[in-house]
Amino acid sequence: MILETLNPMHYNITNVVPEAMPAATVPILLLAGFLFLIWNYEETSSIPGPCYCMGIGALISHGRFLWMGVGKACNYYNKMYGEFVRVWISGEETLIISKSSSVFYVMKHGHYVSRFGSKLGLQCIGMYENGIIFNNNTALWKEMRPFFTKALSGPGLVRMISICVESTIDHLDKLEEVTTELGNINVLNLMRRIMLDTSNKLFLRIPLDENAIVLKIQNYFDAWQALLLKPDIFFKISWLYKKYEESVKDLKGAMELLIQQKRQKLFTAEKLDEHVDFATQLIFAQNRGDLTAENVNQCVLEMMIAAPDTLSVTLFFMLVLIAEHPKVEEEMMKEIETVMGDRDVQSDDMPNLKVVENFIYESMRYQPVVDLIMRKALQDDVIDGYPVKKGTNIILNIGRMHKLEFFPKPDEFSLENFEKNVPSRYFQPFGFGPRGCVGKFIAMVMMKAILVTLLRRCRVHTQKGRGLNNIQKNNDLSMHPNERQPLLEMVFTPRSITGKCQGD
Fold first, then answer.
1. What are phi and psi of 503, to 5 degrees?
2. What's residue 445's pLDDT?
3. DSSP-assigned states of every residue in 144-157
4. Over 70: is that where the pLDDT of 21 sits?
């Protein structure tokens, strides 16, 4: 607000000039004031937000994102100025939008399929014009997306259910590997291992060291989050980014070795049909000259990190909510027993798990992990009456949007929020449209299968009955718990129907 008070339009300049000031000084001051007004006028926008103020406002704006984190800064500006706000990142105009009609419009239209981020930062993590997550070269992105779409739908979608059940049971049978000396379960580590295992079994199928890869994925995500919006000057000082560069090299090196093993396996295979999967299709495309080796490696890396990065944290938050709301757990268990009885979940059960599905949706609404969507305007446009120039950065603050409109109890965790059908314009946890999350259907299948399999075998308890509000969280590129705190561990006790859960 300090910058706003500096705007000369708020004052009558002649009122603040002392009467005793020499006559020659007054015209000079008036001229300076006029030039200052012209400077600000050129940067004035009809969109609410902090003033530009000769670039000082732009510097403070970018600094706030670096200091507070992307998510927290977006919530700050939306709360301060409204649901459609203009700020600056790296000197570029950036809109923060949490108004449902505007969010829906941006997601729907093809001239918002590009994303934005530091070129040097994206180059460092391998996402600059590679892969699909932050590939802002739309032509290359369109070439890569079909590989992901094919792998994450159809037969792969059905196979993932049995893979998730198998992996969850396997990891529950060896809970001692993620159990502390006090008998508590490191649930985040457990979820990451399950997610990595399921992704590997469907998309790569090469034996790997789960613990080592999970740690490398965590470090890679830290680098991604730290470097995405850094100014160019940051990359001029090697000691500032060296540790992040090393983290990226560690994961990329490990993935390149696994992909090389995959190539050798394909070369020696008698029947290729038995080895066709996501990685295989990419390797074949490279052999045809359609893809570079760098793009193949990055695509496999992104497929392997997606679930351990976001879905594992999402499931962790869900388990905390289950422990915090025993009545919701009872409702879910009643449905699970009715639909499946004593057997494990199958493909045909998925549409009948309505309570479980509503729980998943409400968890993602109430405690999102990915609560921001980043885009860039590829042409001039008008959104809800506001002019948007080509090249403008856009951040869709869907986490805030999900608590502003439509839902009867927006600030509470309640399955009542999904008792009635929710129009898509008000709830978009995965986004939609031409750049919506390509893995949204398989993500729902994975969450259902893992939750149901775990809950059939275990009751979950937080330490001292504490809930989500007791857990410190960082809201930057995504919402993650601060992993230095001791409250993340949980206790699992076996249910009588199976007795298979260990760790009590």
1. 100, 10
2. 96
3. HHHHHHHHTSTHHH
4. no
Q: For 404-408, what is the mean pLDDT?
A: 93
Cα–Cα nearest to 395, from 161, 74, 38: 74
Determine contact, residues 467/320, Cβ cutoff 8 Å.
yes
Checking DSSP bridges between strand 458-462 and strand 479-481, what pairing results, if any? unpaired
Length of the chain: 504
pLDDT over 90 at 318, yes or no: yes
Element (H, E) at 492: strand 490-494
User: Cα separation of 449 and 467, whole Å?
Assistant: 24
Band of residue 30 on the pLDDT scale cut at 50, 70, 90: low
Q: In this predicted model, what pLDDT tens digit does every residue of 222-235 receive, in sequence order?
A: 999 999 999 999 99
CB 291 within 8 A of CB 129: no
pLDDT at 33: 52
Q: Residue 504: enclosing H or E segment and its boundaries?
A: none
Q: What is the mean pLDDT of residues 295-300?
A: 96
- Whether the full predicted model's pTM is greater than 0.70, yes or no, is yes
Report whether 88 contacts 94 (CB < 8 A): yes
Looking at the DSSP assignment, which residues form a beta bridge with residue 481?
Answer: 473
- Alpha-helical runs (H) found in 288-434: 293-306, 312-324, 326-340, 354-366, 398-401
Residue 35 has pLDDT above 70, yes or no: no
Q: Which residues contact 163 (CB under 8 A, 6 or more apart)?
A: 198, 201, 202
Q: Is the dihedral of CA 353, 356, 362, 368 positive or negative?
A: negative
